[in-house]
């Protein structure tokens, strides 16, 4: 049976990004994209309705997705509005640009 790949996107507070990256590396996740984003959500400030967060994007095997989500939750949850969100989606496939290798 083919290994199913998942796309995990997490939007987290900028104050937790270093902790999340170290924790993901600790469970063997070395490749990810991180970007700073501005968004609107439950966390609203009086003079600035948008907030700055970080977005982590990674592709993992189906076997690792639960560990990745758990790790992100353990290192970001404060119980307050603005903690962020995690989205998990199934990928049809990925392709390495370097050599056009189609990955599972």
Keywords:
104 residues; alpha+beta; Alpha-Beta Plaits; four-stranded antiparallel β-sheet; two-stranded antiparallel sheet; 2 helices; 22% helix; globular
What order do the helices and strands come in, and which of them pair?
Elements: E1 5-13, H1 17-26, E2 33-39, E3 51-61, H2 62-74, E4 84-90, E5 94-95, E6 102-103
Antiparallel strand pairs: 1-3, 1-4, 2-3, 5-6
Written account of the structure:
With 104 residues, the protein is an alpha+beta fold. The chain has one domain (5-103): Alpha-Beta Plaits. The chain has helices spanning 17-26, 62-74; strands at 5-13, 33-39, 51-61, 84-90, 94-95, 102-103. The longest helix has 13 residues, at 62-74. The termini are close together. The model has no long low-confidence stretch (mean pLDDT 89).
- Count of individual helical segments: 2
Distance between the termini: 11 Å
Low-confidence stretches: none
Count of separate structural domains = 1
The whole-number mean of residue pLDDT values reads 89
Beta-strand content estimate: 35-45%
Question: In the CATH classification, which architecture applies?
Answer: 2-Layer Sandwich
Rg over alpha carbons: 15 Å
Helix content: 10-25%
The order of strands across the largest sheet is: 2-3-1-4
